[in-house]
Amino acid sequence: MSKQKPEYDIVRPKPESFLQSTRSFGYSIETAIADLIDNSITAKATEIKITYGIDRYSSFVRVVDNGKGMNEKELLNAMRIGSFNPLDARHENDLGRFGLGLKTASFSQCRRLTVKTRNKTGKVFIRCWDLDIVAKVKDWVLLRGIANKNSEKNLADFSSEGSGTIILWEKLDRLVESDEVKSDKEHFYRKFDNVRKHLGLTFHRFIEAKEISISVLNDELEPINPFNISLEYPSTELAEEQLSIKQQNILIQPFILPHESKLSSGERNNLEIIRGWTEHQGIFLYRNRRLIADGTWLDLDFKKKESQRLCRIRIDIPNTLDSEWQIDVKKASAKIPDVIRKRIKTICFTSIEKAIKVYTQRGAYLKRKGEKKEIVYLWKAKQKQGKRFYEINKDHPIYQLITAYLEKDAYIFNDYIKLIGESLPINFIVSDFSDPSMTMKDFFEGSKGELKAIYQNTVAALIDAGVSEKDAIEKVNRIECFQQLDLN
Fold first, then answer.
1. What is the pLDDT of residues 234-254, one digit of tens each?
2. Residue 197's closest CA among 65, 29, 310?
């Protein structure tokens, strides 16, 4: 009687092919190192030290923490590809996600990963992945020690007594891209300047709370708080809102930053963060206080505009909602769950409106020669019998100037202005503004020269009407539309 064939095949991935594929998850050097720091924080580290060296034959990156370390079994599991099921429950303070971060983040930048760890027993354990050895042997070969004497030197020893872990990257083929040492060093240092900023931003809440310190080449990083730009002019906090999914709380806190005109040059530099302050507008998504998305509208169909750049919205989610938010392997992107999408979009829309108002009005007041001048607006919003409408401000200096010039014929101008107010296409404006495919033109976008000419013409007309030059300039400087110009 013949033996029955099984109803399935076991098809294992080729080690060299699979590991090579893990190098293409889209990590940058910044997100890769941030992933390593996640593990350090989860291991209750309070000090994390990043060092690096670059030369023709022995470039390396080393991350040392004083966390709880691992025993041999835990180290083997940490070095296993896919060491944790993302569907399993995690500790509420765990910053991990798929059990891939240590390996995929490291392989995205290097071909050799060595981990040295020491737990509270004082025993030291070492394991090493070398992709070149895996490719040569064609099997899942994990070295039980250091690859060579040079690696031993680069790995070094723990910087303090007690437990901890050292992660060493070598064969940095993604960081060192040529044989030109001078050029490689310049690019290497530039990349680590970005690493400093990225880590200061990503982990700013941990650093501010003095739960951890992170240093790069013994230079301790300062936290970069994207919401607190100025001590003298704090950001405006709008009403915080709490939503929930599966009885898990989601906190949403909008901020309106102070207008640039109120800030010092150093504070304006703080607004830039990494990509520039217009690019950093929008949602800052935090998972367990760790930043996931640093200025984006995610999938809400809002476009980034200069007039909205004072708007930043902090959203806090727990690690129990990773699936609902579609957190990716790199912990660098997400998608708003459909069940709360409409509410979050409404919150963002309201916040954008307030941010635009501050941006265009410079906070409603401007400092001019030590005095505060109230802004004069072209339009007035009114309400009558429960209905909202808008009309031209008849107290506006330009309106009064024209009516005085026209004298008895001013009724024609008044009728025309009334028609403009009554026929303002509000429905079309709202519809176009909400259309993700439509890009709205900003106020005098690309034509500030024309606005300046109107300003000068208005001053001249007031002077011709008998107003003193000083009073004419003061009057025109208060007009809302001219706040876009540098009038100081």
1. 899 999 999 999 999 999 999
2. 29
